Amino acid sequence: MKKVLSVIAVLIIAAGIIFAQSVNEQKSGQRTLTVYAYDTFCGDWGAAGSVIPAFEETTGIKVNLVASGAAVEVINKVRLEGKNTSCDVILGISDDIADKAYDLLESYDSPYIKTIDERYVFDAQNRLIPYDYGAFAFVYDTESGIQPPTCLADLTKDEYKDKVILIDPRTSSVGTGLMMWTYNALGDSWLSWWKTMTENALTTASGWSSGYGLFTEGEAPIVISYTTSPVYHVMWENTTRYQALLFSDGHETTIEAAGIVKGTKHRAEAEAFIDFLLTEAQIDLANANSMYPVNSTIELPAAYDYAPVPERIFTGSSDQASELLTLWTDAIVK
Questions:
Q1: N or C: which end of the chain has fewer CB within 10 A?
Q2: How many domains would you assign to the chain?
Q3: Distance from C-alpha of 217 to C-alpha of 90, rounded to nearest angstrom
Q4: Domain check: are 242 and 323 in the same one?
């Protein structure tokens, strides 16, 4: 009974806070917007440091930015808060987990959707609207002296024994992206590739940070990452040592999107924020996230000359990813 009363008390307090915020907003005349985003976006090196102040200055809308963990945690936070949520916009939801968020969101047919290449618009109802995208790729160290591979099958050769770092699909979105890539590129032989590579690779890291860290420390000359990874090294380290490899069998994409939460009382402000992400914020988002802007009219900095755009791309659904992960686990995990 005490637990029930405690929960009721928390809900009452939360409702009171939201009501008080609404009253204060009405009194001050200040237009506001609450955005839930993943931690990296909100961090010291994240895009929020430039995007949010620019949006506030341009529109006069005050943003309450809430760091909410990883993208899945952003979704879960809104779901748990239910009708009491103060969130107006969620940001950073990738296409491979999109189906977990759709029921929480309202459609918005932004006039700037027409600037997005249709390959990256994954929700026909525009509940989640893309703002940047990336393509998974293997990055290699040009100072290693190795002959760079040209396709996924090359990596299984003896010459690359202990020279490749993979990432686990069970614990990382980059690993999931690699899994989807091998399935879409190799068809029925995708699991055979993984069985060979678990023996040929130096290691299968649990996450991108640990895997890429081993790579930059010189433990292996090839690592799974993004075609845009070299942009960071060019912009912040002034080096072209690390380069992304375009493979003949195509590349898997990942797309980040934002959506307007159902029942928002700040619909106009939310729409203005989405529109801003698709226009003035595109360069800042691309630079901070080391991703490509979805707005096809954006001119990129020179550093992006080292982020080649694949001609052949694949995309997959979150349902498909779940099914493949079960197959992968049964076949690969001992």
A1: C
A2: 2
A3: 35
A4: yes
pLDDT at 277: 98
Whether 201 and 291 share a structural domain: no
Q: How far is CA 139 from CA 190, 196, 255, 305, in A?
A: 20, 20, 19, 15
Tens of pLDDT, residue by residue over 265-279, are 999 999 999 999 999
- If asked whether residues 286 and 318 sit together in one domain, one would say no
Binned at pLDDT 50, 70 and 90, residue 13 comes out as: very low
Residue 157 phi/psi, 5° resolution? -75, 155
Same domain? For 170 and 263 the reply is no
pLDDT tens-digit series, residues 173-225: 788 889 999 999 999 999 999 999 999 999 999 888 889 999 999 999 999 99
| Per-residue pLDDT band at 10 (split at 50, 70, 90) | very low
**Same domain (yes/no): 165, 230:** yes
CATH number of domain containing 272: 3.40.190.10
Question: 330 is written with which tokens?
Answer: 């049964």
C-alpha 223/C-alpha 146 separation (Å) is 13
Only one residue has tokens 């995007």, namely 51
What are the CA-CA distances from residue 164 to residues 87, 159, 174 (Å)?
42, 11, 15
Q: Please indicate, yes or no, whether residues 195 and 324 belong to a single structural domain of this protein.
A: yes
Give the residue numbers spanning the domain of 211. Answer: 134-253+307-332
**Residue partners of 138: CB distance under 8 A and separation at least 6:** 149, 155, 164, 222, 223, 224, 225, 244, 245, 247
Asked whether residue 20 falls in the same domain as residue 120, the answer is yes
Nearest alpha carbon to residue 100 among 66, 134, 132, 76: 76
Beta carbons of 100 and 322 less than 8 angstroms apart: no
Question: Are 259 and 249 in a shared domain?
Answer: no
